[in-house]
Fold this protein.
Amino acid sequence: MHITRLNIQRVRNLQTVALHELQPFNVFYGQNGSGKTSILEAIHLLATGRSFRTHIPRNYIQHDTADAIVFAQSATEKIGMQKLQSGEQLIRVNGDTVATQGQMARILPLQLMDPLSTDIIDHGARPRRQLLDWLMFHVEPEFYHAWQYYSRALKQRNSLLKSRRHLSLDDLEPWNRMLGDYGEILHSQRVEIVEQWKSRLQEDLLQLLPDLQIQLEYSAGFHVEQGLYADLIQHHQKDVDRRYTEYGPHRADLRLKTPLGDADVVLSRGQKKLLIMALKLSQIAMLHACNRETVVLLDDVTAELDLTAQQRLIERLSQLGSQVFMTTLDQQSVKKHLHELAISYRLFHVENGQVHVVVP
């Protein structure tokens, strides 16, 4: 879905924003605190149901108002979300109310590129696992179904482990079987997709970090050679003592390795930022190969990348058919890149929550 029209109401300092005739690249510039990033936040809220800046709705819904609303339209789709202070939300697709955020996510695949953050590399397995599962959701049709069943079984098993101090194998048998079956399915799906991802990643690493050798390795979260069900049986007492499920795809990880050691230890901050971009660009390339285009949010990229890296990134996103919404303090550099690459764009000036089209 390429957005042609975007309406935002009551998100932070954006009282009412109405944007029309949006282009493949849409550039928002203005001073810090003007509301640039809030525009990206609103699009993220629409696609995912959550902000990338806070987990608390009252922090992004305007003070003394009941809700925030975001609406987007393409040539074929109309989608909207109302987010309440309580965290409840109403989602509509082409006028119909839909039940789950997953339906919205399929219509609007979204990638956020924030070069200020190196959480994916530095902060444990969870953000890397989330990155993998975003890719799985969009390129493996059976993944979401298997993940739902696995997650329900995991929730029930963990609930039992927390509620009772003495549990036999028989008490957990139904959940062990379900976890084992769906966990193996998830693992097989992930292995296949990660193998495809590895080759795509090397292509983007060659462009962004040509002097480094970096390998992507997948860790299953359980002992693959003996299987997840066997792990659950063998470590039954440990799970009972710890009161949670230790083994399974919910503990999987992606490891990024160089010849000198793990990427989080060896790479500089600047190299980590470029590595994160390569990871996300290669994912976008995989969706592009499946005829699915991605909306990309670039927050203040020009402040963190040199001019060569900026141009490579913009050119690559254009090649992949992505629609880009980007913020910057340096609109002149961005305009220069877009003109040199002959990319269609729209320029907006943001000031005190007001957004104005800038005519070239």
In short: The mean pLDDT is 94. The chain is about 45% helix and 20% strand.
